[in-house]
Amino acid sequence: MTAMAGEILDNQGRGDASWSWPPIHPEGRKFGVAALGISLIFAFLAWETLAWPMAFLSLGVFAFFRDPERVVPQDPRAIVAPADGLVSLIAQVEPPQELQVDDGTGQRGLPPGQVTRISIFMSVFDVHINRAPIEGSIKRLVYIPGKFMNADLDKASEENERQHILIERQDGLQLGFTQIAGLVARRIVPFVKEGDLVAVGQRVGLIRFGSRVDVYLPAGTDPKVTVGQKIIAGETVLAEVGEQKLLEAISQ
């Protein structure tokens, strides 16, 4: 069930919801139309053995770039998931240097020290639109070229093509996250630039064809998700700022 974009809903029954087909993001329409066009050409030439696979490919492309509406929590303590997918890794790490060091603009970066990193693996079947985990101003947007190894590997955080994003709230809270290309993903597409103001859950970019997103929680904050959990961008609460609590789960 989804709601109209911008509509306020709550847990007391306010708001209306109905099912609808998810729209296709404009970034993907050209690829889907191109595949469909090739399929029609093959069909016109009576090359059915090629026409049908291209037709199914066009449907797959349209499905990959689907962009459903999400009902975004408005609790100021909540850090929401920036990506659909599987929580593949949770580890204590130092934030990337690109999010820490002085970038020459006078804007402060993340402080040094161990924080919790949540890694979200997106398969080709997941929605690939990425969303802002908190509201605030885009302080840094750092693109780094790199390899295209399996995004599920831990070292992909340091070696793959990636883009770091640092958001700062009005109260000074900062949160960094990283879009990481994978084996199939070959382009990270940003929808925002430095200085933009974003709302929690707002679309900030996408990664084409399978990838990963790492989130660096603020110090003193533990995840509210577990390894192996399936999460939804803009809806699943990854953590609550300042909350530290062991959370155990059972796969069944």
TrEMBL record:
Keywords, sorted A to Z: Cell membrane, Decarboxylase, Lipid biosynthesis, Lipid metabolism, Lyase, Membrane, Phospholipid biosynthesis, Phospholipid metabolism, Pyruvate, Transmembrane, Transmembrane helix, Zymogen
Pathway(s) of this molecule:
Phospholipid metabolism; phosphatidylethanolamine biosynthesis; phosphatidylethanolamine from CDP-diacylglycerol: step 2/2
- Where Pyruvic acid (Ser) occurs, residue numbers? 211
Required cofactor(s):
pyruvate
> Mostly located where?
membrane
What NCBIfam families does the record point to?
PRK05305.1-2, PRK05305.1-3, PRK05305.2-5
What biological-process terms (Gene Ontology) are attached?
A: phosphatidylethanolamine biosynthetic process
Q: Where in the cell is it found?
A: Cell membrane
Cite the position(s) of the site with description Cleavage (non-hydrolytic). 210-211
Q: Which PANTHER family match?
A: ARCHAETIDYLSERINE DECARBOXYLASE PROENZYME-RELATED
> Quaternary structure?
Heterodimer of a large membrane-associated beta subunit and a small pyruvoyl-containing alpha subunit.
Per the record, membrane topology reads: Peripheral membrane protein
The record places the active site at 211
How does the cofactor bind to this protein, according to its record?
Binds 1 pyruvoyl group covalently per subunit.
What does UniProt say on post-translational modification here? Is synthesized initially as an inactive proenzyme. Formation of the active enzyme involves a self-maturation process in which the active site pyruvoyl group is generated from an internal serine residue via an autocatalytic post-translational modification. Two non-identical subunits are generated from the proenzyme in this reaction, and the pyruvate is formed at the N-terminus of the alpha chain, which is derived from the carboxyl end of the proenzyme.
| GO cellular component, as recorded | plasma membrane
Give its E.C. classification number: 4.1.1.65
- What does the UniProt record say this protein does? Catalyzes the formation of phosphatidylethanolamine (PtdEtn) from phosphatidylserine (PtdSer).
Catalyses which reaction(s): a 1,2-diacyl-sn-glycero-3-phospho-L-serine + H(+) = a 1,2-diacyl-sn-glycero-3-phosphoethanolamine + CO2
The answer to whether the entry has keyword Lipid metabolism is yes
Q: Name one GO molecular function term.
A: phosphatidylserine decarboxylase activity
Membership in a protein family: Belongs to the phosphatidylserine decarboxylase family. PSD-A subfamily.
Species annotation: Altererythrobacter xiamenensis
The name on file for this protein is Phosphatidylserine decarboxylase proenzyme
In terms of domain of life, where is this protein from?
A: Bacteria
Indicate the transmembrane segments per the record.
31-64
